[in-house]
Amino acid sequence: EKGGMIGNIYSMGLALQALGATRNFYAPREWNCTQAFSVVYSHDYRQPMAIAQVLPALVGKSYLQAASLSCAVKPSVSPSLQALGAGCPPCPSPPPGVPADITVHYSIINKLQGSHFHYTTEVQVPAGSTLLRVLQKAEEDKPNIFSFKTKPTSWGPMVVSIHGLAASTDDRTYWQFFSGQDSLQEG
Q: What pTM was computed for the model?
Protein backbone atom coordinates (compact mmCIF):
# COMPACT_ATOMS: atom_id res chain seq x y z
CA GLU A 1 0.00 0.00 0.00
CA LYS A 2 1.37 3.41 -0.99
CA GLY A 3 -0.56 6.48 0.14
CA GLY A 4 -3.66 4.31 0.53
CA MET A 5 -3.50 2.88 -2.99
CA ILE A 6 -3.67 -0.92 -3.14
CA GLY A 7 -2.50 -1.96 -6.60
CA ASN A 8 -4.14 0.62 -8.84
CA ILE A 9 -7.46 2.45 -8.93
CA TYR A 10 -9.09 -0.45 -10.78
CA SER A 11 -8.08 -3.00 -8.14
CA MET A 12 -9.08 -0.88 -5.14
CA GLY A 13 -12.70 -2.09 -4.98
CA LEU A 14 -11.75 -5.76 -5.01
CA ALA A 15 -8.87 -5.21 -2.57
CA LEU A 16 -11.13 -3.42 -0.08
CA GLN A 17 -13.75 -6.16 -0.44
CA ALA A 18 -11.15 -8.87 0.16
CA LEU A 19 -9.65 -7.11 3.18
CA GLY A 20 -13.08 -6.48 4.65
CA ALA A 21 -14.19 -10.08 4.16
CA THR A 22 -11.00 -11.61 5.57
CA ARG A 23 -10.13 -9.18 8.37
CA ASN A 24 -10.77 -11.89 10.99
CA PHE A 25 -8.59 -14.43 9.22
CA TYR A 26 -5.34 -12.69 8.27
CA ALA A 27 -2.50 -11.66 10.55
CA PRO A 28 -2.43 -7.95 11.36
CA ARG A 29 -0.35 -6.01 8.86
CA GLU A 30 0.51 -2.43 8.23
CA TRP A 31 -2.52 -1.21 6.34
CA ASN A 32 -4.10 2.17 6.68
CA CYS A 33 -7.81 1.67 6.12
CA THR A 34 -8.52 5.41 6.34
CA GLN A 35 -6.01 6.22 3.61
CA ALA A 36 -7.35 3.45 1.34
CA PHE A 37 -10.92 4.69 1.71
CA SER A 38 -9.71 8.26 1.15
CA VAL A 39 -8.30 7.18 -2.22
CA VAL A 40 -11.66 5.63 -3.14
CA TYR A 41 -13.72 8.59 -1.91
CA SER A 42 -11.61 11.11 -3.82
CA HIS A 43 -11.67 9.20 -7.13
CA ASP A 44 -14.32 10.05 -9.71
CA TYR A 45 -15.46 6.55 -10.69
CA ARG A 46 -17.17 6.58 -14.08
CA GLN A 47 -17.10 2.95 -15.20
CA PRO A 48 -20.02 0.78 -14.03
CA MET A 49 -17.69 -2.16 -13.31
CA ALA A 50 -15.48 -0.03 -11.04
CA ILE A 51 -18.52 1.33 -9.20
CA ALA A 52 -19.91 -2.20 -8.78
CA GLN A 53 -16.63 -3.37 -7.26
CA VAL A 54 -16.10 -0.44 -4.89
CA LEU A 55 -19.70 -0.02 -3.69
CA PRO A 56 -19.79 -3.04 -1.31
CA ALA A 57 -16.72 -1.80 0.57
CA LEU A 58 -18.14 1.72 0.80
CA VAL A 59 -21.39 0.55 2.37
CA GLY A 60 -19.74 -2.09 4.57
CA LYS A 61 -21.61 -5.03 3.07
CA SER A 62 -20.66 -8.13 1.10
CA TYR A 63 -20.94 -8.10 -2.66
CA LEU A 64 -24.13 -10.15 -2.54
CA GLN A 65 -25.70 -7.98 0.19
CA ALA A 66 -24.85 -4.81 -1.75
CA ALA A 67 -26.89 -6.10 -4.71
CA SER A 68 -30.09 -5.55 -2.71
CA LEU A 69 -29.31 -1.97 -1.62
CA SER A 70 -31.89 0.69 -2.35
CA CYS A 71 -30.56 3.40 -4.63
CA ALA A 72 -32.70 6.08 -2.99
CA VAL A 73 -30.45 8.70 -1.42
CA LYS A 74 -31.04 9.07 2.31
CA PRO A 75 -29.81 11.97 4.46
CA SER A 76 -27.40 9.63 6.26
CA VAL A 77 -25.59 8.73 3.01
CA SER A 78 -22.27 10.47 2.58
CA PRO A 79 -21.83 12.96 -0.30
CA SER A 80 -19.31 10.54 -1.86
CA LEU A 81 -21.92 7.79 -2.00
CA GLN A 82 -24.52 10.23 -3.30
CA ALA A 83 -22.12 11.11 -6.13
CA LEU A 84 -21.66 7.41 -6.95
CA GLY A 85 -25.41 6.89 -7.17
CA ALA A 86 -26.11 10.09 -9.04
CA GLY A 87 -24.20 9.14 -12.18
CA CYS A 88 -21.57 11.25 -13.82
CA PRO A 89 -22.41 14.88 -14.36
CA PRO A 90 -20.89 16.42 -17.46
CA CYS A 91 -17.53 18.09 -17.03
CA PRO A 92 -17.99 21.71 -16.04
CA SER A 93 -17.01 24.47 -18.41
CA PRO A 94 -13.60 25.95 -17.71
CA PRO A 95 -13.74 29.02 -15.46
CA PRO A 96 -13.23 32.43 -17.05
CA GLY A 97 -9.61 33.02 -18.04
CA VAL A 98 -8.82 29.30 -18.41
CA PRO A 99 -8.33 28.15 -22.00
CA ALA A 100 -10.99 25.77 -23.32
CA ASP A 101 -8.35 23.72 -25.14
CA ILE A 102 -5.11 22.20 -23.92
CA THR A 103 -2.04 21.04 -25.82
CA VAL A 104 -1.01 17.44 -25.24
CA HIS A 105 2.43 16.16 -26.28
CA TYR A 106 1.77 12.59 -27.38
CA SER A 107 4.46 10.04 -28.25
CA ILE A 108 4.28 6.41 -29.27
CA ILE A 109 7.41 4.34 -28.67
CA ASN A 110 8.18 0.72 -29.51
CA LYS A 111 11.54 -0.68 -28.48
CA LEU A 112 10.43 -4.30 -28.06
CA GLN A 113 9.12 -5.92 -31.24
CA GLY A 114 9.49 -5.75 -35.00
CA SER A 115 10.59 -2.45 -36.46
CA HIS A 116 11.21 -0.07 -33.58
CA PHE A 117 9.62 3.37 -33.78
CA HIS A 118 9.29 6.65 -31.90
CA TYR A 119 6.83 9.27 -33.13
CA THR A 120 5.74 12.46 -31.38
CA THR A 121 2.99 14.94 -32.08
CA GLU A 122 1.07 17.72 -30.35
CA VAL A 123 -2.72 17.75 -30.32
CA GLN A 124 -5.23 20.32 -29.15
CA VAL A 125 -8.13 18.85 -27.16
CA PRO A 126 -10.74 20.36 -24.84
CA ALA A 127 -9.63 20.65 -21.21
CA GLY A 128 -10.80 17.58 -19.29
CA SER A 129 -10.58 15.28 -22.33
CA THR A 130 -9.95 11.58 -21.87
CA LEU A 131 -6.86 9.81 -23.12
CA LEU A 132 -9.04 8.17 -25.76
CA ARG A 133 -9.91 11.62 -27.13
CA VAL A 134 -6.18 12.44 -27.37
CA LEU A 135 -5.57 9.23 -29.35
CA GLN A 136 -8.53 9.98 -31.63
CA LYS A 137 -7.30 13.52 -32.32
CA ALA A 138 -3.76 12.31 -33.09
CA GLU A 139 -5.21 9.71 -35.46
CA GLU A 140 -7.38 12.37 -37.17
CA ASP A 141 -4.32 14.58 -37.68
CA LYS A 142 -1.86 11.85 -38.78
CA PRO A 143 -3.69 8.58 -39.52
CA ASN A 144 -0.68 6.85 -41.10
CA ILE A 145 1.33 7.22 -37.88
CA PHE A 146 -1.09 7.40 -34.95
CA SER A 147 -3.69 4.81 -35.95
CA PHE A 148 -4.97 2.63 -33.11
CA LYS A 149 -7.56 -0.03 -32.34
CA THR A 150 -9.58 -0.70 -29.22
CA LYS A 151 -11.73 -3.54 -28.00
CA PRO A 152 -14.71 -3.14 -25.69
CA THR A 153 -14.35 -4.42 -22.13
CA SER A 154 -16.52 -4.13 -19.04
CA TRP A 155 -14.14 -1.33 -17.95
CA GLY A 156 -14.61 0.57 -21.20
CA PRO A 157 -12.54 0.54 -24.40
CA MET A 158 -9.05 -0.96 -24.10
CA VAL A 159 -6.29 -0.01 -26.56
CA VAL A 160 -5.02 -3.19 -28.20
CA SER A 161 -3.02 -1.82 -31.14
CA ILE A 162 -1.15 1.37 -32.00
CA HIS A 163 0.59 2.06 -35.33
CA GLY A 164 -0.26 -1.50 -36.39
CA LEU A 165 1.53 -3.08 -33.42
CA ALA A 166 -0.90 -5.21 -31.44
CA ALA A 167 -0.68 -6.26 -27.81
CA SER A 168 -0.12 -9.99 -27.39
CA THR A 169 -1.01 -12.28 -24.51
CA ASP A 170 1.37 -14.90 -25.94
CA ASP A 171 4.28 -12.43 -25.85
CA ARG A 172 2.96 -10.76 -22.67
CA THR A 173 3.07 -7.35 -24.34
CA TYR A 174 0.64 -4.49 -23.99
CA TRP A 175 0.49 -0.76 -24.53
CA GLN A 176 1.31 1.22 -21.40
CA PHE A 177 0.48 4.91 -21.03
CA PHE A 178 2.57 7.44 -19.11
CA SER A 179 2.31 11.07 -18.11
CA GLY A 180 5.97 12.03 -18.00
CA GLN A 181 7.57 9.20 -16.01
CA ASP A 182 4.38 8.22 -14.15
CA SER A 183 2.26 5.32 -15.37
CA LEU A 184 -1.36 6.38 -15.79
CA GLN A 185 -3.89 4.72 -13.49
CA GLU A 186 -6.64 5.18 -16.07
CA GLY A 187 -7.31 6.98 -19.31
A: 0.54
